[in-house]
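Hi U.,

Before I forget, here's the chain from the pilot set. I'm dumping it here mostly so it's searchable later in email.
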Amino acid sequence: MSTMRSDYAARPLETLGISTDEERAYRALLSRRLANARDLSSTLGITVRATQRLLDALAAKGLATHSPERPRRYMPVQPEFALEAIVSQRQAELERARAAIPDLKKHASKLRADADRGEVVELVTSRDAERRIFEQAQHAARNEVVTLVRPPVRLTRLDTPFEQDQQPQRSARARGVRYRSIVDAGWLALPGAPARVRSESESGEEIRVFPELPFKIAIFDRRIAFIPLNPHEPDGATLLVRSSALLDALYALFESLWERSTPLAFAPAGAMKAAKASRVPEAAAKLIPLLAAGLNDKAIAHELDVSSATLNRRLAELMKALDTRTRFQMGWRAALEAFPERVPRTRSK
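Structure:
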């Protein structure tokens, strides 16, 4: 590397398209003032034919002129004229190249615009392609990722954040990306799902539950969305939706579902928590988010690691604390206690 730099520095004429051999011939011709190929061949140490080619090259570049007789005799053009002419010509060429920059910039902008307007909806059937695009979206996310999560779980394909390695999501949250997810009550009833939700909630995920979601989706920065084409075929194709009115509508649907979903939260120690009146026993209060999620008694008992008898006793305690006689009444009163600003109270006449 250092040798190449020193050679370049020692040969400034190379930038003008003058080779090493041509420069040697030009220097030799400058020292003689007038010479033919045979005269210079011995000085250059090459054949007469090779010398003739070099002299013709010098003449073509304006570094020499020649007489009309045969054999030709060559006279050098003085450097201040010859090299100045070459420099001026090269500058003119560079200016012409510079003039092409605006047109190239316009062309590049058009290509980017065309790419951005590409296919609004794309069907992705390749597992590798889906994984690659999903990972790119994860790493490119800067503002928000929202998801709808419902059964079935895809065992072999990338899917919503709850069903894959969580490290990319945690890295994204560390750089300020907000994650919001709505989980289907049916998904929450799957073995291990509550523990997974608890883990992600403690890591900063905002999680709510909805009785039954229509489909799965993951939307990144409102720029790109992934939708499994058939939620009942875990290994089926995926729809890729890019920025468009369709994507805006899907995001609006998420927001609508978000407003109608029940928040889930977990204490740092891992226990579920929900807003409640002080008169509700703590053990009974743990039932509220599970009941709101739509879990049946068996799933609730499994999540709390209690027997059916203990669960029934806590349900009775919760009904008594809320002064209700049925589960419907209990749910309504629990909603009033947890979210008084969102549930209209009945006004007495």
